[in-house]
Amino acid sequence: INNTMCTTTSPKVFTIDQPSSRSARSNLRSGEKSMFKIPMFYFTAISHLVFFYTINLHSSIVVDTILSKGVPVVQTITVAPVVTIFDWIGRVIIPLSTEKGYTSRTTLVMIDYLVVGVGLFVLPYANNYGTVLATCVSFGAFSGHAMTVHNPLMAQYVGFNRVNVANVIVTCFAAATFFTKPFVIGYFRDHLGSYDGLYRIMGIVTISNAAAWLVVNSIMRHRKARTWTT
């Protein structure tokens, strides 16, 4: 009796089929092109960079600003915990409006920048503990949401598979800009003796950021309207 041996193919448990180097390079190249050719990638990144830099400047000088208005230290240290509560509300509660479909992320981020910009601009005119606390609290929730909405907003334009790469790029640029903070803060503190001018500049820049999003939202709605009519 002739014994016939059956050849069986063993399953590849520990082996992962690697794509060819040519196809891998082409996929990577096409992915890079597709992300860097999206105009909203640049706009969203720059917009977030400007806001992130501005809100970090505010966090760095807000205590000195409050103390310079004659507010006692005991009252000054209570501002941050109160603002943190509203910051948490902005990070957790406000995004639910987009999940429920009440509004879009682009509209909310425009409102965030507008409210924060107005708050930063009027902060120099707050001269006591009550007005300072009310001003900081008024935009605390919106600044918290603006920081949180960046990731889903970026993913909306570049795709979830490339959002990590986009965030790395934005983070690198943000880290580089932080080297300028000591010079900016030192100029207004040592040469001008007040942060009031800096707050007005930050307010105008943030309001301009909101205006830019207003233009973008208008263009998007116009394009959607044209798509529906055609």
From TrEMBL:
Q: Where is this protein primarily located?
A: membrane
Xref: SUPFAM superfamilies = MFS general substrate transporter (SSF103473)
Parts of the chain that traverse the membrane:
35-53, 73-94, 106-126, 132-153, 165-185, 197-216
UniProt KW keywords: Membrane, Transmembrane, Transmembrane helix, Transport
Q: Which GO terms describe its cellular component?
A: membrane
Give the record's membrane topology: Multi-pass membrane protein
Q: Where in the cell is it found?
A: Membrane
Name of the molecule in the record: Monocarboxylate transporter, putative
Q: What's the source species for this entry? A: Ixodes scapularis
